[in-house]
Amino acid sequence: MKKNIGIVFGGNSVEHEISILSFIQAMHAIDTEKYEVLPIYLTKTGEFWVGPNFCVLKTFQKKKFKHYRIAFHKKNGELYIKGIGFMPFKYRKRLDAILPIVHGKNVEDGSLAGFFKILDVAYAGSEVLPAALLQNKYHAKKMLALDGIPVLPCRYYTIFDYKERRETLAKEMDYPVIVKPVSLGSSIGIKIANDGDEFIRACNYAFKYEDSLLVEKKLLRFREFNQAVMERNGEYLLSAVEEVKSENPFLTFSDKYLPSSSTHEIPAAIPEELGQEISRVSLKIANQYRTRGVIRIDYLYDEEEEKIYVNEVNTIPGSLAYYLFEEQMSFSELIDSLLASAFKAKYKNDLKLNSFQSMVLSNAKILKK
User: Fold this and answer.
1) Could you read off the pLDDT of 128-142 as tens digits, one per residue?
2) What is the DSSP letter of 52?
3) Comparing 3-123 with 134-150+220-348, is the CATH topology the same?
4) Which of 121, 272, 278, 369 has the most beta carbons within 10 angstroms of its beta carbon?
């Protein structure tokens, strides 16, 4: 019997459109002989929709398209969807698992994981804690550094700090620096500042997206590497190491998703020792934070110091990073592995005690207000 899989994509994120692209790629790869797939679109205003032609890019290029609003409900311990208003019968499905294909703040950061954790359904991605910690660049740096994982030093500022000390901060910087919103992805909101005026403009731009940011010293001579890690049968599988090359001072949104001169070398042409160090750090992060699904770790290599640094960790990477595993498995097989791990994690969790019986309600003293 086929398993019913809900693929959730979209969301209130600046990476909303990237999520749609990742979802469409996955829809073309998932084994429909094994799974009955229900695409579930999460709008930018927080509504869940189903509808026809959701696996076609042209649908989402329109301002308006046919859809039905839905809600989730539990029946006899299983998860179902129902229409808010009219919805054709074919969409009224029991869902055995959720495959999240969302990117960025408000979805990838544990928000969606928490929603489906409450609904107690198999979820093919990282749980709330690792997703939340690793989405926030500042807190991720602090935690990684405590675990002995190399990260670039940074300064952290809220919009309140900035408003009070803007001119002073601009004079204190050791330029050039790179200014980043604290929890966005896809290089959105990032600017390089070479002097005080550029620093103020960069901060003003970053604060349009979030109320906090971090500032790092920009490396002058560096290389960029990526590696993905996938949880499978309780162990972690490493992908090939990728080198991304760009003519820009850092890998921009356009480099990642639009026609550009950037190139991707898989596997990266690097010394064996460097590859082993990257793999060691990738495994340490996955094990330390018990990530699930597939994650991608982005690295910066300082050519002057000959030292590798973790730049950021993506708990639901674009395209689910399938291209980094192509020598080991197909995209279809990768999705199979993610779902198998989700079912296994759900089974193991169901064996745990999640309640505690007591007589406290019948014997408790009246609580004082």
Assistant:
1) 999 999 999 999 999
2) T
3) no
4) 278
* Alpha-carbon gap, residue 53 to 363, rounded angstroms: 57
Specify the DSSP class assigned to residue 66.
-
Does residue 117 sit in helix, strand or coil?
Answer: helix
Superfamily of domain 154-217: ATP-grasp fold, A domain (3.30.1490.20)
* Residues found in the chain: 369
Is domain 3-123 classified as CATH 3.40.50.20?
Answer: yes
pLDDT value for 364: 65
Q: What is d(CA 342, CA 293) in angstroms, rounded to the nearest whole number?
A: 8
Q: How confident is the model at residue 368 (pLDDT cuts 50, 70, 90)?
A: low
How far is C-alpha 197 from the chain's CA centre? 33
Q: Where in the chain are the domains?
A: 3-123, 134-150+220-348, 154-217
As assigned by CATH, the class of the 134-150+220-348 domain is alpha beta
**Rg, Å, the chain Cα set:** 22
- Contact (Cβ atoms closer than 8 angstroms) between residue 199 and residue 176: no
Q: Which of 9-23, 42-56, 58-72, 353-367 has the lowest mean pLDDT?
A: 353-367
Neighbours of 60 (CB within 10 A): 18
Taking only the tens place, the pLDDT of each residue in 189-226 is 899 999 999 999 999 999 999 999 999 999 999 999 99
Whether the full predicted model's pTM is greater than 0.85, yes or no, is yes
Quick one: which of 229, 225, 257, 262 has its CA closest to 242?
225
Q: Which of 272, 275, 245 is nearest to 260 (CA)?
A: 245
Query: 8 with 100: CB under 8 angstroms?
Result: yes
Per-residue pLDDT at 224: 96
Q: Which residues pair with 7 in a beta bridge?
A: 39, 99
